[in-house]
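#struct-queue
[09:14] JT: dropping the first one here, sequence first, then the structure tokens:
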Amino acid sequence: MMDEITARLSERMTSPLPGLVAQLKMASKLRQKAAASYNPDMSTARIGAVLIALYPDNGVLRTVLMKRPDYDGTHSGQVSFPGGKLEDSDSGIVEAALREAEEEVNIKPSDVQVIGQLTQLYIPPSNFLVHPVLGILKSKPDFIADDHEVESIHTPELSYLFREDIVGEKEILLSTGFKFKTPYFKVDGHVVWGATAMMIAELQELFDDIPLGR
């Protein structure tokens, strides 16, 4: 299964990505309306990277998400892919994504076959320009949550993330006090919204007719 998925994803990555059009399907109406004219100054943006890790588990394909603990910050308590800020010691986006995934959930970089990068995504509240890195593993990692950065680890089947019946809409209250409605995925009782939901939307279109297992 994994060899076929790897080959077909690698082929897809040589074509234009689904991109912003796909991402906006899980964006708030405010962001959808602003998309055509929104042109932030990226020269001051902080660069980040996340790892979208895919691995087989008893005949199905899974990915890994993590819930951040509550803290005094923009992304407090949110569910996301493992990832974080590009450090000066990183050679680039891929190394940053792999390093963060190892630090946060114990995915070993040597176990990851990097397929490529999905469309970068700007997060206005935290001024992060995030680069999603897509990676394949041959087997399930030995997950260990970082004591400080990870409250819980979640490993949904990819087919579950692509189901229409887990999509809803709710009002989100930002740390700034701003409220808005946005679509979300419900995963293990948690609300997955914002940049992570937009990445999942693009991933779904990238897979299209690629089999996800039994």
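[09:21] JT: and here's the second one, same format:
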Amino acid sequence: MPPSQISPSLIATLPGHYYTDPDVFRQEQENLFESLWFCAVRSADLDRPGAFRTVQVGRENIVVTRTRTGELRAFLNVCRHRGARLCTEESGEVRRSLQCPYHAWTYDLDGTLIAAPNLIKMPDVDRVAYGLIKVALREWLGYAWVCLADEPPSFEDTVMHAAVERLGDAAAIEHYGTERLALGKRVTYDVKANWKLIVENFMECYHCATIHPELTEVLPEFADGYAAQYYVGHGAEFGEGIRGFTVDGSAGFGRLPEVTADQDRRYYAITIKPTVFVNLVPDHVILHRMFPLAEDRTVVECDWLYAPEVVASGADVSKSVELFHRVNVQDFEACERTQPAMASRAYRGGGVLVPNEHHIGIFHEWLLAGLGETHA
């Protein structure tokens, strides 16, 4: 059902309880985060056999590891014996296997049960059947995406389609060669706000003139409320005299090798539902991964990615990092200011979207459909 039309200019948002109700958040965990593809970890972070990282996906904790033959594998982070958490650290490296710290059940990096106290006296135990529970995994843009669903949705029709839908060309995102880029900086933000407030904020620029002075200096279109997510194939153009996507407009680095002339001096933003933002500029890529942990808490991990030679040279990337770091801080502070009001009687019926924000209603329709609801 389309968003409620209040007037030709205004349509209704979701009511406030969608941002504060633990039961709504539980439904989102089950129907969205545990059912759709979820961007878990940067592949290059697991750069050798035995490297692992644990991530929270909905209500499940997942361990992603690299096998001895070089593939990435994902498993539920649960020992099959008595249910203890297998990997208790957020990241680390093991030599050859994953061992439960409770009773020492031990698993190969491919998930097979390979050892346990007195296991030799239990010849009837099927070491594959009692191996770790596998989680579907795909790699794209240099990241490992996982899906907990028994029958995952099409990766091409959901995740990859978001880039086509926004850029209007299946090959356009490939020009940035994201999977070949190197990590120049990572910043983790612990945001005291519902994940949907962060998505909605990213999808509109009605707020840009108010809280993003540095960004609107580089991208003057944003000062007029230009909706970065809305116009297919259109990237916001750098302002006159702006030399690079940096905090002071100074030059950045050379254009990435396959970025086209049409993509030069432009910024493109892509939302990959439910929890990923991709920001494309000529000389680097900024990728946000959200980890919703509660109805009022979201951890956001933001990576700045550059050509490998830029990072290897020790080049100073601080001016380009600082631009979007400031944007992040400004946005997340706005979301944190908004979160308390979601529980106010003033927001029981929700708020309104002005024309520059009407496309957020499409996100609301998607959300309600995912929750099995026809209206808010």
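[09:30] RK: nice, looked through the second one.
[09:31] RK: The CA atoms of residues 32 and 367 lie 8 Å apart.
[09:31] JT: good to know. Helices lie at 22-33, 155-167, 195-203, 208-211, 213-218, 308-312, 318-338, 360-370.
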